[in-house]
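Action item from last meeting closed. Structure (413 res):
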């Protein structure tokens, strides 16, 4: 009876029905944005996106798949030299731009990685392609470490030069040196787009869901039925437990339903190929320290996202129960997600460490992995990821207890 009452209260409210519709719109937008970012340009300059583009990119990438070793690098360099020598490059000519892009599509990812590794030696990408020789490619992976050493020890304009301790610098270098090479490369656009659009879905999703959660405890106060509801034995015991359980159920169902549909649409259209490729073979992730595949990265992102939903969801429930105000409760997710951007205005080493362990990192674990958020405790250096994955689940358990205890033995005046 109590469960049915709570479910009816949630789903019969017009505002909650609108929120559910907005969640569906948000999911559709996130899926569409991920699919539209994959593009193929044909020989006439026409472009296609979504599944059709993914199929063509997959086929074009087959020749450039496998271990990214000396042999594949030399083959890619020879192809790039041929493309640039046979194609007129003119920044003002739209035709030359799409012709060049069409020829590069299969080998583009390796070209970008060569740029990350060698461009500093030659000034521009075009100079690198012209002057780079096959024998130079033996430094491809070593350059990744050398460039990081320069960033930490030689470049006086860099963040790393001034703001990391010696122990932290050695920790960073040890992570870079531990990367197992050669990396496995291949088509991986499905995973990349799924990873990059997921934080948008998660962050705006929890903001919308908070409007539903905020009424779980506070609706009786808004309807002036609290003096009866919470002064009964079952109102203080079973009803309170049901509300806590309902909050957990709504958070869990909403999260996994949205993530499952999102993953099915994005990966179903763009493909799951490349899940075992190292994330460093995508140019956006070249400087990531951790040894991780795209599949592992994505599973970590959705796992951390669920922990973030539980933390923020139960924080909303507790504030709603404590203050009896849904307005204050719905402000919390927005403030937590906007706070890092505000704190960036006061950027400093201390503030950077604060930003690195804020709960928004659970909804965007990729940022916590990509950025060098480091913490030293008794000469032991650690990253932000294990901290947020340990601390916030513990706080969530405490919030569950506080939500249940709030009306457990209380009589409402």
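Sequence:
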């Amino acid at each position: 009876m109590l469960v049915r009452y709570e479910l009816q209260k949630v789903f019969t409210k017009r505002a909650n029905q609108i929120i559910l519709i907005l969640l569906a719109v948000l999911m559709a937008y996130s899926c569409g944005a991920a699919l539209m970012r994959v593009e193929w340009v044909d020989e006439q300059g026409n472009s296609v996106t979504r599944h059709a583009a993914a199929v063509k990119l997959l086929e074009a990438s087959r020749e450039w798949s496998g271990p990214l070793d000396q042999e594949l690098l030399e083959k890619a360099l020879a192809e790039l030299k041929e493309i640039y020598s046979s194609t007129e490059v003119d920044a003002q000519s739209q035709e030359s731009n799409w012709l060049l892009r069409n020829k590069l599509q299969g080998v583009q990812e390796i070209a970008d990685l060569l740029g990350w590794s060698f461009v500093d030696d030659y000034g521009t990408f075009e100079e690198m392609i012209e002057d780079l020789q096959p024998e130079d490619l033996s430094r491809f992976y070593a350059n990744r470490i050398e460039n990081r050493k320069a960033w930490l020890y030689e470049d006086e304009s860099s963040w790393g030069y001034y703001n990391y301790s010696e122990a932290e610098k050695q920790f960073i270098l040890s992570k870079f040196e531990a990367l197992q090479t050669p990396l496995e490369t291949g088509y991986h656009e499905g995973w990349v787009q799924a990873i990059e659009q997921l934080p948008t879905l998660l962050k705006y999703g929890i903001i919308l869901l908070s409007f539903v959660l905020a009424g779980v405890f506070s609706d009786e106060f808004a309807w002036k039925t609290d003096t009866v509801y919470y002064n009964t034995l079952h109102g203080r015991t079973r009803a309170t437990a049901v509300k806590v359980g309902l909050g957990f159920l709504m958070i869990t169902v909403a999260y996994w339903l949205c993530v499952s549909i999102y993953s099915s649409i994005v990966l179903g259209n763009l493909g799951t190929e490349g899940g075992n490729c190292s994330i460093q073979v995508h140019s956006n992730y070249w400087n990531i320290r951790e040894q991780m595949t795209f599949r592992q990265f994505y599973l970590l992102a959705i796992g951390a996202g669920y922990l973030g939903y539980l933390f923020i969801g139960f924080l909303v429930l507790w504030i709603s129960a404590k203050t009896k105000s849904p307005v204050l409760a719905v402000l919390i997710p927005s403030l937590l997600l906007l706070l890092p951007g505000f704190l960036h205005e006061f950027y400093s080493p201390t503030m950077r460490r604060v930003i690195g362990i804020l709960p928004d990192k659970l909804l965007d674990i990729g940022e916590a992995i990509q950025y060098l958020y480091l913490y030293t405790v008794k000469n032991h250096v650690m990253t932000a990821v294990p901290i947020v994955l340990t601390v916030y689940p513990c706080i969530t358990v405490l919030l569950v207890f506080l939500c249940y205890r709030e009306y457990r033995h209380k009589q409402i005046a």
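Note appended to the action item: Residues 153 and 161 are 5 Å apart (CA to CA).
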